[in-house]
Design goal:
The protein has 84 residues and is an alpha+beta fold. It has one domain. Helices cover 32% and strands 24% of the residues. The protein has two helices and six strands. The strands form three sheets. Strands 1-6 form a two-stranded parallel ribbon. Strands 2-5 form a two-stranded antiparallel sheet. Strand 3 and strand 4 form a beta hairpin. The protein is elongated and about 50 Å long. It starts with a strand and ends in an 8-residue tail after the last helix. The model has no long low-confidence stretch (mean pLDDT 91).
Length: 84
């Protein structure tokens, strides 16, 4: 079985600030994390792999720093990330 999990890098919601005039999210200086719901999907994929065999591949899209999310997913146990 080959399982593909899509992950997205998002601002850490615990540290988000809202601009007082425009009411938009101020992303400057806010660290990014893997979307917590994507981590649930990754956890389930890893469980399925361990139970039935196969491999887990993680994908993402975004700016170059989104690659950090892929490396983090590998530390959680994903088998590979696709090559550029």
């Amino acid at each position: 079985m080959h399982i593909v999990v899509c992950v997205k890098q998002v601002p850490d919601s615990a540290q988000i600030r809202v601009h007082p005039v425009t009411n938009t999210i101020m992303r400057q200086g806010v660290p990014t994390i893997i979307n917590p719901y994507d981590l649930f999907a990754l956890e389930e994929a890893l469980w399925l792999r361990d139970k039935h065999g196969g491999e887990v591949t993680v994908l993402t899209m975004g700016p170059p720093m989104a690659e950090d999310s892929l490396h983090k997913a590998l530390t959680f146990g994903a088998d590979r990330e696709p090559c550029c």
